[in-house]
Amino acid sequence: MLWPPAGYDDRTSGLTAASYIATNAYMQLAMQASGDAEALNRTFFALADPTRRAILARLTLGEASVTELVAPFGLSQPTISRHLKVLAEAGLVERRREAQFRHCRLNAARLAEAWGWLGNYREFWERSFDRLDAYAKQLLEAEKAEKKEKTRERGQRKRG
Amino acid sequence: MNEVKGNVVEPESERELILTRVFDVPARILFLACSRPEHMRQWFGPKEYPLTLCEMDFRVGGKYRFAMTGPNGVQNTPFGGEYLAIEEDRKITFTNAFEEPGSETMVMTYTFEEAGGKTTLHMRTVFASIAMKKLYLSMGFEAGTNSALDQLVALVERLVSA
Fold it and tell me: CA-to-CA distance for B88 and B27, rounded, in angstroms?
């Protein structure tokens, strides 16, 4: 299997630095909501590395042995194993041993969870606008009620 | 206003996001809701993350400072900025950044367009960089021609929408 493809390089495709994500307060906000900030933090850290993302991408095609993962990357087995360890600790990859081979499988649910928290800027505002919609109607009603009250008071003063 | 990053100027059009919503109220109501802390607290952010810090000096050159507290009771990193332009019932422009070293600043503009008792709100965000926009909008995995990575994106999107 041809992986990674010739010219593979997603270092320029965003999610560039682990530090950027780790210090991004917007992400913190999102992580808090997960109830397990530590775990999600590990997931983002794991996702921040292009080699690890490439490994995940390979695993979407199906389970692979460590040897199969090492072959296309031009990296040593210990290096790939280190990346796999990070991915496993983040819950993104499950490892199992069969005879003398180690097999790796994508934990798609974990990946989906992390993905859900990325890019929730739009979601944040959509939810705010939902609330603004309800609150603005209340403000309008309050304004109408106040006008009515003033008209009534004026009427009373005229009569009195 | 283009940000200079290294020697490369990233055009504003590639760093911006515009969200639009039509509200069934006059523009003055939306302007009011965006211009006073007691109103802001009622709608800003998801319900489970109320503004527990909300200071607004609502005038051009004035500053604001917000922070949200989530279900775990710990207040999040405060964020805020400065009001750059205010046109009553029409427009509010302000900067926005987290109070954290290295935090990038975005410039946000609310525009209110009233017609027939309804108001269209455009919320325009100009991110500091294309990378920041991608990160905030989950475009981080965008790879274009890389088919295997596209497959990862497709898989995750299926899972998320399921």
Answer: 9
